[in-house]
Amino acid sequence: MLKNWTINTFLLVSFLCSATGQNEGGAPGIFNGMSFTENLQPDPNQVCGMSNPNGLVANVKVPKDYSTPGQFPWVVALFSQGKYFGAGSLIAPEVVLTAASIVVGKTDAEIVVRAGEWNTGQRSEFLPSEDRPVARVVQHREFSYLLGANNIALLFLANPFELKSHIRTICLPSQGRSFDQKRCLVTGWGKVAFNDENYSNIQKKIELPMINRAQCQDQLRNTRLGVSFDLPASLICAGGEKDAGDCLGDGGSALFCPMEADPSRYEQAGIVNWGIGCQEENVPAVYTNVEMFRDWIYEHMAQNSNSVPFAAGQLPSNYKQE
Questions:
Q1: What residue ranges in the chain does DSSP mark as E strands?
Q2: Domain spans of the chain?
Q3: Sign of the C-alpha dihedral, residues 234, 115, 118, 106?
Q4: Can you give the pTM of this predicted structure?
Q5: Runs of H (alpha helix) within 80-201
Q6: In Å, what is the CA distance from 70 to each residue of 54, 74, 270?
Q7: Range of lowest pLDDT (133-137, 172-176, 245-249)
Q8: Confidence label for 157 from pLDDT (cuts 50, 70 and 90)
Q9: Distance of CA 43 to CAs 6, 28, 130, Å?
Q10: Distance of alpha carbon 200 from alpha carbon 217, whole angstroms
Q11: Which of 27, 93, 238, 239 qualifies as a FRET site for 258, CA 20 to 30 Å off?
């Protein structure tokens, strides 16, 4: 037994030395012409905010205001009794971030989360979607339906999603992150226009300018809200461009922005909250400020989940060797 253990140990050490180039005078730390640090690359499915800029299905032509299949893999659709009612974002394999306003009055058992979705009108797609039941819903205790303040909720799933090319997570914003003057995106399956009878089957893609709070409040005071309207501290704004914006049915969807260092990666700035009509010029829409609720998110994930969401700039500890 001792002899066999010694031989096996010698073979293992010899292999490792050979692989690192430390035998026969080779350069240390070299494998197949590359150092180990160069050869280790993060698994893209484990990196938050990693999009698929060209989608994952070839030869699919879609209008510019729609996403391509698999383009934004953290977007999830929410269903109740088989009907779509809103959207959310996957921030961990078993945790969805959404708006409290769209889950009010719904029990945990009646909500189903669908990831990897693109066309809600077609169950058989190029990239198969996956459904998960919700085990627990956590809404912010100080959520105000009237004002939209603290409009945030977490859905803890009964079973986690397995991360893959068309099902990934979105990054939370880094502490103190500001998105002023940025152009960001919203995706979802809400109405294309206010007077449409039905929601969109195909996942929409809407590009919007971020609007600073002072300008937003001034513009909203010019609406039916009146001159005394005060924008709650937990809200941020985007939009105000004619014929561009989210609409009814987009509630809970993520407002996400490209990272400066890598525009193909995104971090979540907001959650679709409320608006005055849809796509009206100089009338921005209002979103929950996700950065303000980072601590709240981490606190409740620590209590209800084994996962911790990644913030922008972080990489997971598990790497794969290419």
A1: 30-31, 34-35, 40-42, 75-80, 83-92, 95-98, 111-115, 130-139, 153-157, 183-188, 204-211, 235-239, 254-258, 266-274, 284-289, 319-321
A2: 75-170+294-304, 183-292
A3: negative
A4: 0.81
A5: none
A6: 9, 9, 21
A7: 245-249
A8: very high
A9: 36, 25, 21
A10: 30
A11: 93
Lookup: tokens for 265: 């990666």
- Tens of pLDDT, residue by residue over 309-319, are 656 555 444 43
Identity of the amino acid at 41: Q
Q: What span, in angstroms and rounded, lies between the C-alpha atoms of 239 and 241?
A: 6
Instruction: Give the integer Cα–Cα distance in Å for 88 and 254.
Output: 6
The amino acid at 264: S
CA separation, residue 52 to residues 158, 223, 262, 268 (Å): 27, 38, 13, 16
Instruction: Examine domains 75-170+294-304 and 183-292 and report if their fold is the same.
Output: yes
Instruction: Return the closest-CA partner of residue 291 out of 271, 272, 317, 306.
Output: 271
Distance of CA 290 to the CA centre of its chain: 11
Yes or no: is domain 75-170+294-304 CATH 3.30.1340.10?
Answer: no
Helices (H) and strands (E) in the chain, counts: 4, 16
CATH H superfamily, domain 183-292? Trypsin-like serine proteases (2.40.10.10)
